[in-house]
Amino acid sequence: MIVSVFRRMFCVSLMLTAVFMWGEGDDAFGDPFSGDQSLPEHDEAGVVDLSGRLSYKPVFFAAYADKKRENPVFLSNAVETVLTVGSEFGRTRFSAEFSVGVDIDGDNNPVFDIGARRLYFNYRADVLDLTIGRFAIEWSPMSVFPLSDFFSPAGMPAPGGDVAEEPATGLRAVAYVGPLTLEGVFVPLYYAPTAMTDYFGALGIDLYPDDIPVVLTDSRPGLSLGNPQGAVRLGLDIPFLDTYFYYFHGFMNQTLTTSRTEFEPPATVTLVVENVHRIVDRFGLTATLDVLGFIVNAEAVLTLGAPVHVTEEVELPIGPVTNTVLKSAPLARWSAGFEWEMAKDVRLIFEYADVEVLENVPEVNQALLGGNKVFGALDVRLPVGPSEQSLTAGAFYDWSGGGLTAVATLKSDFLNGVTVEASGIYFSVLGTTGDTVSVYAQLDNSLIFSLTATYDF
């Protein structure tokens, strides 16, 4: 239960420093209406484009106890090199991005990571766009509270705020008919979302009681062709408004955690904690209205048979205990917000999200539903001579648990090809409710700080 509460708050908080850069990423397949819809030129077919990025990013966590600062703990101290390769052959395009990184774990041992962030072929005809390989998919128009990015882990950032992109491997097809688009995605291999548990110990958060043994179990399916996922989406593009309706079938894009206390005579008490993965059906819609620089985004998702956390009182020989279990119920989530370019190089951002269980389920844990959250921020570009700086400052508040998170990011492109970015996330408690008190209290008056230096070549 405590794990689930902290995951929701911590994941959303870390994401806030990554989502307010001007413009959108080029690697994700999102709005088919956006960008250049013209066919590729033929005169440079076969030319291979190479580029790369070298980055260094230390991230540390600092807490205050009894008004005295404790020694900071490094969450990450990573160096990474990314190589991007692209080429066009007539109407066919190839794109790949490979990464090699090294980080230091809690025991000061090097941890190496080698992977392919994307690797796909794309063919574009007059009315059809076909992609096969490994690619990212972003369907949600929201920056802070995305609901429709089903193929990416929900709230799964790396330490310090960068959203950990986890591409899907499969097939994507988009058909264009006038103002309509029909899109289909098929992912034959299931990748279970990674849990956040590894970060908890480094933060010093007590997840489980110290006085009884804890057994961790995980029902995560293995990588196989027996767990396919798929989705279809219908889009309508009219002046000032983009609207999509979609259906998704597959695993939930987040790890849910349950806990129960077990007693074995004569006096053995064990806390069993399980990570659960469920298959669900989802229907939803998204809408974006853009009028003279004022952008309004909204989305709603209906999940059939959604797992909902329920608090359950059980009487054991040692006395009454409280378990957190899952019940199935239809669940509606929605989010809405706006982005307003209120002046040149100044952008105001606001988003709100809520959730509602659509049938009577006794003892639903409202805090774990993750609703009733609000975020606001100001994003400013600061041109200084030949360089450019951007400053983002905002705050996130969770009414269900009383946790306030303040976020600030300063990014500077002060040298050719070199970018330096500093981010800070500050946690505070403005009041607590129910079972969230222990986690929010442990994070009160703490700070996560990251410094990223990047060289593009």
Brief rundown of the structure:
This protein is mainly β. It has helices spanning 2-15, 197-203, 366-369, 437-443; strands at residues 28-29, 48-65, 68-69, 73-89, 92-104, 110-124, 128-137, 168-177, 180-187, 214-218, 229-238, 241-251, 256-264, 268-276, 279-291, 294-316, 319-343, 346-357, 373-384, 387-398, 403-415, 418-429, 446-456. Helices cover 7% and strands 60% of the residues.
The CATH superfamily label reads Porin
Query: Total strand count, please?
Result: 23
Helix content: under 10%
SSE class: mainly beta
* CATH hierarchy: architecture: Beta Barrel
* Low-confidence runs: 1-26, 35-43, 156-163, 432-438
Main β-sheet description: 18 strands, antiparallel, barrel
Keywords:
mainly beta, 3-stranded mixed beta sheet, 18-stranded antiparallel barrel, about 5% helix, 4 helices, Porin, about 450 residues, globular, about 60% strand, 23 strands
Describe this structure as you would to a colleague:
With 457 residues, the chain is mainly β. It has a single domain (2-456), classed as Porin, CATH 2.40.160.10. It is 7% helix and 60% strand. The strands form 2 sheets. It has an 18-stranded antiparallel barrel.
Write the layout of secondary structure elements.
Blueprint: H1 2-15, E1 28-29, E2 48-65, E3 68-69, E4 73-89, E5 92-104, E6 110-124, E7 128-137, E8 168-177, E9 180-187, H2 197-203, E10 214-218, E11 229-238, E12 241-251, E13 256-264, E14 268-276, E15 279-291, E16 294-316, E17 319-343, E18 346-357, H3 366-369, E19 373-384, E20 387-398, E21 403-415, E22 418-429, H4 437-443, E23 446-456
Parallel strand pairs: 1-7, 10-14
Antiparallel strand pairs: 2-3, 2-4, 2-23, 4-5, 5-6, 6-7, 7-8, 8-9, 9-11, 11-12, 12-15, 13-14, 15-16, 16-17, 17-18, 18-19, 19-20, 20-21, 21-22, 22-23
